Amino acid sequence: MGKYNFETADFNSELWEQLRGAYGNIQEDIAPLMADTPEVPDNEKTLSPYASFESDYMIAFDNILQQLSHQMSFYNASYIALPYLANAFNYWYEKDDFVMQVLFLVNTGVIVSTDNEDNHQYNNDITDTIPENIMESYNQSILFFKEKAEEFLINRLDMLKQFEPDTVSYICISLLALVGKREHSFVLLLENFSQCPVVCENCSFFLEEIELDDDIENPEINEELNSMITPAPSVIGEWDKKSLDNTYMWLSNVLHIAGSDYDAKKLSYFYGTFTCPECGTKSGPVIDVCMKALMGC
Ligand SMILES: [Zn+2]
User: Fold this and answer.
1) Distance, CA 294 to ligand 1 centroid (Å)?
2) Residue range 9-66, pLDDT digits in tens
3) What tens digit of pLDDT does each residue of 228-259 get?
4) How many Å separate Cα 122 from the centre of its chain?
5) Integer-rounded Cα radius of gyration of the chain
6) How many angstroms is it from 275 CA to the middle of ligand 1?
7) What residue numbers bound the domain in which 287 lies?
8) Is residue 145 part of a domain?
9) From the CA of 279, how far away is ligand 1's center (Å)?
10) 155 lies in the same domain as 241
11) Residues 37, 166: one domain?
12) Do 119 and 242 lie in a common domain?
């Protein structure tokens, strides 16, 4: 696939039994995606959480997401699934089907966000036992998706305006797993882009949840938020629309361009500074503090 070199595991491989998703073997869910010229009805090309699917393709596609990201855990079946998803994505890419590309990039982003240290410390981590060629193909297919996500964010940005602001935010924080730190995407997805747990590295002060939604419009009503988090200064209007190196910079501006200023403001809290209410130690960005709190550090 262009400069990326990945192969899909054989359908007769015993790996399908070994590398399982949340509900077991994922082979049956992968198979419909491999049809030569699949068709999906337009009304099923949706990111709505209330969507119901009737086509074999979308039922399988939806199952794969459930199998590989149930409760935002990591599942070993992802190692074998990602190259297949990359091939299936390529069909829609070559067909220039914009919405199907978005669906694949979003779901892949969610799946990749779960492949992080927090999940690996709790799960039965068998990373070391994965055959080298499978691991290499998995990593190559993630790089392939990264390139496509970057292309999407830089060249197709205006197309995002066709979605509702909440959907745009979900798309962006999922794509973040592919183009930026997957841990940041994981925190925002896991906490519904509305809460964050915090921990102080100095004195171990811990708070399971600071609420951001609604309260950022009136920070004075949320004493905890007001006293503990200093939002990062706004960078709206400062992005060159090319560089994706600075997550806070591009993500703030993409949210703004797509009409999601409220979420851009919320993001300034996640990329702000945490001040411990017990000992006064400052740390940040808040989103890294959240990840440490999730990991129980
Ligand atoms: Zn402290």
Assistant:
1) 17
2) 999 999 999 999 999 999 999 999 999 999 999 999 998 878 889 999 999 999 999 9
3) 999 999 999 999 999 999 999 999 999 999 88
4) 19
5) 20
6) 8
7) 195-294
8) yes
9) 4
10) no
11) yes
12) no
